[in-house]
Amino acid sequence: MPEIESVDQYIQSHPRWSEILLELRELLNSTALKETIKWGGPVYTLDGKNLVGIGSFKNHSALWFFQGALLQDNTDLLINAQEGKTKALRQIRFEAGSIIDTQELLKYIDESISLHKQGKKIKPDLKKGIFIPSELSDFLKSNSELKKAFSILTPGKQREYAEYITEAKRDETKQKRIEKIIPMIKVGIGLNDKYKNC
């Protein structure tokens, strides 16, 4: 699939959800938010900060709020897509045939803008300990060059790699993931750096 460079291109590449995406886009463009593409999808910013995004998945499309956990007045439609993992991000899902209540959604967007203007945001917990799974730990012990490169990474990058291995259910998947991350660790890049620099 070619790299997405515009919101029009993104919507065209998701024909099943194009009607919903177009409605959401029109709604978001009626606000003070600025439209851009980040991580291959539409993101809406204010003062350079990510506030809202839209996207399509296999079984639904979604409107998500980067600081959605802070919303207090408008919460009925919000869900945490990764309970226990996602601290701030919340989304509203739309299935095929969903009716878009733009006036209701505008309340969520307006509250997000208001919270941003007040300077409110959820900060990541940087003091959280890092659990290195045995599969990765054993590999690091057997390779001193890799162990040194891993130790130089920031705690956040170390945590991303550790969680990436831990989340795999099967041993074969864990092994494939370790093989994938070795060259990245050696050059000092994080698992999700390509997304953070967008």
Q: Give the oligomeric state of the chains in this entry, treating copies of one chain as homo and distinct chains as hetero.
A: single chain
Query: Per DSSP, what share of the residues sits in E-state strands of 2 or more residues?
Result: 5-15%
Number of helical regions: 8
SS-based structural class? Answer: alpha+beta
One letter per element, helices H and strands E, the order comes to HHEEEEEHHHHHH
End-to-end separation in angstroms reads: 18 Å
Largest sheet: 5 strands, antiparallel
Which spans have pLDDT < 50 for at least 5 consecutive residues? Answer: none
Q: Give the strand tally.
A: 5
Structure description:
This protein has 198 residues and is α+β, with helices and mostly antiparallel strands. Helix content is 42%, strand content 15%. It contains eight helices and five strands. It has a five-stranded antiparallel beta sheet. A hairpin with a 4-residue loop joins β3 and β4. α6 packs antiparallel against α7. The longest helix is centred in the middle third of the chain and has 16 residues. It is elongated. The mean pLDDT is 86.
